[in-house]
Amino acid sequence: MTNVAIVYYSATGNIHKLAVAAAEAAEKAGAQVRLRRVAEIQEATIAPNFTEWTEAFQEHVGGSSREVEIATQDDLDWADAVIWGTPGRYGAMAGPLKHFIDQTFELHARGGLKNKAMSSFTSTGTQHGGQESTVLSLSNVFYHWGAIIVPPGVTDPIMVAPSNGNPYGVSATSGLQAVPGLLAQNVTEDNLKAVGYQTVRTLQVAEALKQGLNK
């Protein structure tokens, strides 16, 4: 059985929704699944004047997301495939996820991340808010590890649905505007289907790698 870890950081709930959909798709496909969120690295929201951000932060650290276990390096070591989720922060991954990745040095040094299938998804406030570059910021890490990057590409009709269309990794648009009071959670059904497809595709590549490398 193939081991799949879904490792994510979610500040307002959008990435959490996508991560849960990814985990459900992997389980349905017959994988062993670990759904894990990375720990917060600060005690307060980064946007204290945005009521919705504050409420979402409190929910993330003390609400429904607290039922999701905190990710550890063992989860990466255990996994054959890792699906990563992060909101975009100025065109790159969020700080808490980068902090977690910075802790992989010892695992990487012994080759513990090479040949694992990796894929990633994101959500940004606007459609052109750095979605592709956020996914690519994670791919830069995967290159160093010697991991196998699995993009969803344009390999299924769901990837060209109006709210998807990103061949690098599924991306949602939250609807966040640059003024307080306008934070919306706009993960669509197509986004959820697409991240499920991306997850299963990555799982299939991981299975092929296991079989091929074990011959």
Automatic annotation (TrEMBL):
At the top level of its lineage, which domain of life is listed?
A: Bacteria
Q: Which InterPro entries match?
A: Flavodoxin/NO_synth, Flavoprotein-like_sf, FMN_Rdtase-like_dom
- Cross-referenced Pfam families, in alphabetical order? FMN_red
- List each copy of the Flavodoxin-like domain by range: 4-178
Full protein name: NAD(P)H-dependent oxidoreductase
